[in-house]
Amino acid sequence: MNGEWWSLMADSFGKILIPGLTMTIPLTAISFSLALVIAVVVALVQFANVRVLKQAARFYVWVVRGTPLLVQLFVVFYGLPNVGILLDPFPAAVLVFSLNEGAYCSETIRAALESVPAGQMEAGQCVGMSYLQVIRRIVLPQALRTAFPPLSNSLIAMIKDTSLAANITVTEMFMVTQRIVARTYEPLILYIEVGLIYLLFCTVLTKVQSAVEKRMRTYG
Amino acid sequence: MLEVRGVRKSFGEVEVLRGVDLQVEQGDVVAILGPSGSGKTTLLRCMNFLETASGGELIFDGETFPMSHTSRKDIARLRRKTAFVFQNYNLFRNKTALQNVTEGLIVARKMPKAQALEIGRQALEKVGLSDRCDYYPNQLSGGQQQRVAIARAMATNPEIIYFDEPTSALDPELTGEVLAVMRQLAEEGMTMLVVTHEMNFAKQVSSQVVFMEHGVVAEQGASREFFLHPQQERTKAFLRTLSGEIR
Q1: Among A9, B88, B109, B188, which residue has the fewest nearby CB atoms (within 10 Å)?
Q2: What is the CATH number of the domain that holds A151?
């Protein structure tokens, strides 16, 4: 490596990192939080066998999992204006990412709910709790604990997927990098650099994941 | 106090209960005996509506409930007067021993937390586990878990406690500590309905014995009489096998 590359990396590092902190991370955090809410609701209506809603949940998961994320972004951002729905890039990205991730996470949570032994529900009802009370206080907490590692996995995948938002003009890390490349003609160095920043973010998340898992190990 | 009449239950084609009648008076300790597959556990589960019986009625404190279609509200009301101890304990895995005991009091019965904690500590002390209040189920032995489960059952001050093979998952040493707690409960006058394979418990603690086979009650009577003078040929054969005699 020559010195020019080093100084290019050093010069651009801040320029790439800042949209990472101000765009990529908020986009991921907001979308993933919403996705979790969607996922819990979608998983619960299936687990509890709520008529109609269960069918709706299956349909939602089927459609979202069966179409590419990039296509979903394009439909919402470039397609919906045709029917009068105009969204800014950021809210459009949040909408798509949360709906998309919600579908995947709902399957994780549904599986985790089903892994809780039926005896937990029976015991809860035998001490006089209602179905919903047992779900909320006994079954769901246990399920979320089981679901935590695969959900962390989804979060890590998502932080990288937000780079697709560049395609709908969200000025996140990857788009900023592309702009710098267009100016400097140094794709190799700059794309590796942005890759390393994603790696840095994911490394932090991985550390957080194992710390939380350690804390949760108090009960089996 | 509690009576069931004509309880039937089928799983698909298989008829597990074929018309069971049973009566429990206040203070009775009724042991339900019988070979595996005779429907003992199913009967107990139907009585607490963990399974829905295909037919039969349950009479509790003079009120009659159709077992195949009792309303959710009535089931909830009945469950507040009863408690259930499971073969595999079924302690809430995400709650400490003390929380296991207080959960039903605080959440289902809306008891003030301080009062619930007081009752919970007393219940755990009674089963000899006051030093294990803050342990999670996976930090307790099987016998300790089952004693917590019994404390959880007692804490709600039920009119009757159902026990579904409470010692079947335990090795002999741990079985003893659980049976001791149950014996103590019986001596205090708790009404208990116990599905069990523990002949010594049935002999020494229970006041009534119900012998089930092929989904019906084959014989029932006072515990002493049952063991000393069994009437039915099947009962005699069953007791012989248990005592280790070979015909």
Answers
A1: B188
A2: 1.10.3720.10
Q: What's the domain count of chain A? A: 1
Query: Which residues of chain A are within 8 Å of residue B154 when distances are taken between CB atoms?
Result: none
Of residues A128, A145, A219, nearest to B109 (C-beta): A128
User: Residue A47: which domain range?
Assistant: 3-219
Distance linking the first and last C-alpha atoms of chain A = 51
Q: How close, in Å, is residue A218 to chain B by CA atoms?
A: 8
- Is this complex's ipTM strictly greater than 0.90? yes
Two tokens at A93? 């990205």
User: Do residues B193 and B24 lie in contact, with contact meaning Cβ atoms separated by under 8 Å?
Assistant: yes
Taking Cα atoms as reference points, which of B153, B184, B160, B182 lies closest to residue B91? B153
What's the pTM value of the predicted model, to 2 decimals?
0.89
CA B63, CA A199: separation in Å to the nearest integer? 67
**Residues 6+ away with beta carbon under 8 Å from A195:** none
**Cβ atoms of residues B102 and B120 within 8 Å:** yes
